[in-house]
Design goal:
638 residues, alpha+beta, Deoxyribonuclease I, Chain A, 2 domains, 7-stranded mixed β-sheet, 6-stranded mixed β-sheet, 13 helices, elongated, disordered N terminus, Endo/exonuclease/phosphatase
């Protein structure tokens, strides 16, 4: 062989993609971390498949930092092609320090088993013939030289590839000539592809769709979007379909690359979304809030705050919402609509409740990140719950100082009378010890949390303490919610101890109006003994299926007065007058969701609220949650 490149151009039967995987990396990533059922072959203009690699030029190989290969795995994927098509024939996972001669023999055996019966046999060979040993050749100048591989390992061969193009010659039983394979060592590699519900969610006009991509041996990735084969978005993890796309199939093409070394030619993957683009279903709330969906001026110095219980998927079932068409309850339809509503408001601070962990990770976080938001998630600690609270801030304007999550029960008094000086601690301790049933429910069964974040406005340096919570839902548990609110006020006081003039914003689904016990404690700093339903609920509440059982009282205990006045900063609702409802289901409506602020903040205005003439129940085809989002603009007191 006098000219290695000439031989390549004359005939090359395929490629061996060889990757040295990091220690601990799952070698089954291609099947486990990608929606392989949606992967397709898709012709992309100006992009070549592996069968037309320009391998006559050198491609630098990426090696791992350490020259020691012990513990690493070599992934070897062998593709053969004929013309413009290619197919994977062999895939092996071998130790990186295995002698490459042994690895080659394994490849030869696999090829003989899978191809021998399909290969053209020479007249002088039979199927039982023993093939010659494979060999390895490298380019030195204008000549190809056979390498001695008796003492070289898989990993060392990849290192050798850094300086030389490598070709394998593998005789296969039944084939006239040895197969000639070019090695592509550590090419840019797509290791994971994810999108909401693995590309099976509804795709709507006006609502963004996205993909997240993980890579090895790459410095970046180009993500292009096609609608019925036509390029509609270049190099973006996000695409917002238009009305022109309605009825069309959406395909995303992904090309990893290495700057100045490897353009990703031949490494592209394409995936098709299951559902074609649908018309956007008008959102009832957005329709009555046109002023709140306009882009905000750069001169707007007010803080826009959004709180929204988005109805966790685990709670959105036909048994919980029998009045709904099952199709509108599906997460594939609801959550893209929710994301669109959230983004439409251009809020600076976003507090979400009933957030499924996988919805946060696979949808909310990546999409809002692409639109300039930084997110923080906290899971509820209650057994069997995989939902919690999510908080986002506009990272162009705000930055995190700290983010923490606190179990509300963690600050309840447990050391006995006299050990805790915070307001009403002794009375709460005595109540819990007198009522072990209540103590067990709060300490063992409930894991409600408060997200606490200190954020700073980048231009002025103004600091804001933001709380986000979701209190116990049972309608006959005002005594439990009041104790939870006591914990929240204590946590706010502890977080604020270092700053006397810090602004406070508390958002959430309190499962109570502000005139009930927990709201009175929050707004006024004190709740009288047996206020409203406290005594009745304390003595009659029993834990049961969904917490709905309410039976005759079995005791006659008093719920004590709770006061936090000595540690209290005046708080007020930012939504005035109070809405008629924020939660609406057949037979029940109530104002459960709130944005409450300290006196250092002034509410300027808030978004319009719907009437029951507009909504008979929620969720529905035009309202994706069973709660109404709350939105307001705030200014700092000069």
């Amino acid at each position: 062989m006098n000219d290695f490149n000439a031989v390549q151009e004359k005939r090359c039967d395929g490629h061996l993609f060889a990757r040295t995987l990091p220690i601990g990396f799952d070698p089954n990533y291609d099947q486990c971390d990608k929606p392989v059922q949606r992967r397709i072959s898709f012709p992309v203009p100006n992009f070549s498949p592996p069968s037309s690699f320009r391998l006559s030029r050198s491609r630098p190989c990426v090696t791992l930092d350490s020259e020691e290969f012990t513990g690493k795995t070599c992934e070897l994927s062998l593709y053969l092609y004929d013309g413009a098509s290619e197919s994977k024939i062999v895939q092996l996972f071998r130790s990186a320090d295995e002698p490459f001669a042994n690895t080659l023999k394994r490849i030869q055996i696999s090829l003989s088993k899978k191809m021998g019966s399909n290969c053209k046999r020479s007249k002088n060979n039979s199927k039982s013939d023993v093939a010659e040993l494979p060999s390895v050749w490298k380019q030195e100048g204008s000549c190809a030289v056979e390498m001695n591989i008796s003492d070289i390992s898989c990993g060392a061969l990849l290192k050798e590839y850094c300086n030389n193009q490598i070709q394998l010659r593998i005789p296969v039983i039944g084939c006239d000539e040895p197969l000639r394979l070019l090695i592509e060592a550590n090419p840019p590699t797509i290791t994971s592809v994810s999108s909401f519900d693995n590309l099976q969610a509804n795709v709507f006009a006006k609502i963004p769709v996205h993909v997240q991509v993980g890579c090895l041996f790459a410095t970046g990735v180009v993500i292009d979007w096609y609608a019925d084969g036509v390029l509609v978005q270049n190099d973006s993890p996000i695409y917002v379909p238009t009305n022109n796309d309605i009825g069309k199939e959406v395909i995303v093409c992904i090309r990893p690359y290495r700057t100045d070394e490897h353009d990703g030619e031949g490494c592209l993957e394409a995936y098709a979304f299951t559902k074609r683009v649908e018309p956007y279903p008008e959102n009832t709330l957005l329709a009555i809030r046109p002023e709140w969906t306009k882009p905000r001026l750069s001169t707007d110095k007010n803080f826009r705050v959004l709180t929204y219980n988005i109805l966790a998927d685990q709670n959105c079932t036909p048994s919980w919402h029998p009045y709904c068409d099952e199709a509108i309850l599906l997460k594939q339809r609801r959550f893209p609509l929710i994301v669109h509503e959230i983004l439409s408001y251009h809020a600076d601070i976003i507090c979400l409740q009933e957030v499924d962990e996988h919805i946060f990770q696979r949808l909310l976080q990546p999409v809002l990140d692409a639109y300039g938001y930084a997110g923080y998630y906290s899971s509820k600690k209650t057994d069997g719950q995989m939902e919690g609270c999510g908080m986002f801030i506009n990272s162009k304007r705000l930055e995190w100082i700290s983010c923490d999550s606190h179990e509300l029960k963690s600050v309840l008094p447990t050391d006995g009378p006299g050990h805790d000086r915070w307001g009403s601690s002794d009375d709460i301790y005595k109540l819990l010890k007198k009522r072990p049933d209540l103590e067990e429910i709060i300490l063992c069964k409930l894991g409600h949390i408060l997200q606490l974040a200190q954020v700073r406005e980048k231009t002025t340096g103004t600091e804001i303490l933001v709380g986000n919570t979701h209190l116990f839902f049972h309608p006959n548990a005002s005594h439990i919610r009041t104790l939870q609110m006591w914990s929240i006020l204590r946590l706010l006081a502890q977080a604020k101890a270092s700053s006397t003039d810090q602004c406070i914003i508390l958002c959430g689904d309190f499962n109570s109006s502000l005139i009930n016990s927990c709201g009175k404690l929050l707004i006024e700093g004190v709740v009288p003994t047996n206020h409203r339903d406290l005594k009745n609920h304390l003595n009659a509440f029993q834990w049961g299926e969904r917490g709905r059982r309410f039976e005759t009282a079995t005791s006659d205990d008093d719920f004590p007065e709770l006061s936090v006045r000595d540690n209290f900063q005046q708080m007020n609702s930012a939504i005035i007058p109070a809405p008629a409802f924020t939660h609406l289901i057949p037979g029940f409506s109530a104002n459960l969701d709130h944005i409450v602020i300290s006196n250092s903040l002034v509410p300027l205005n808030h978004a319009n609220m719907p009437s029951q003439d507009m909504l008979s129940f929620m969720p529905n085809a035009n309202a994706p949650s069973d709660h109404v989002s709350l939105l307001c603009d705030l200014a700092i007191v000069p």
